[in-house]
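We treat protein structure as text, and this decision shapes the records that our systems exchange. We quote a single record here, exactly as it is kept in our systems:
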Amino acid sequence: MRGEPRLGPEVYQAWRSSPLGAITERIEQRVIFDLAGALRGRRVLDVGTGDGTYAIGAARRGAEVTGIDTAPAMLAAARTRAEEAGVSVTVREANAENLPFDDDSFDAVLAVTVLCFVRAARTAVDEMARVLVPGGRLVLGELNRFSVWAARRRLRGWLGAETWKSASFWSAGELQSLARDAELCVTDVRGSVFYPPSALAARLMSPIEPLLSRVRTPGAAFLALSADKLRSHS
């Protein structure tokens, strides 16, 4: 794995095109948007939008969407994919730890596999909470640190993969603490992807994933948390 390139649009596309990636992404999107709730007519910020998967998903659900990322190539890919999907998504270059938006600007904030790459996760979540309106919802999605998937990525980092050298993975309890420290009220925590990184396992397990995601998080590779902002930050 030494010399493995950093994540770029082509890596995302290759993942979605693989049998394992297609199944896994569908499962993860289902739990994220289930927790996000109705988005029609709502202002949504997608933090770390990458090539726009969740921004496009929110726009298809009727939201007014802004996606941010630090990588110009990702933003260009997100813009192209949104145009191809026939939806409107505003994209801009910005950092999760210093969001360029006023307080109380968005009804919902999504951040999927973002905290694993930021240097100051607590600051990033504080910023996400700041830009939420009172009554707004934050949805976080992260790789469970206690999973085979996370162990595999840690190993790749130890072997020289630049993407995973400094990545941080999170437990359900740690995600809840981040949200509560940002003065948010945690409303739900779910796990999904209850299988190892195998296409065969994904095909066998995917039919029961909706049930498993509602009843348990231990053993899940992907964790999703929703938290509401009850009042404006002073």
About this structure: Residues 19-36 form the longest helix (18 residues). The beta strands are 43-47, 64-69, 89-93, 106-112, 132-143, 184-192, 222-229.
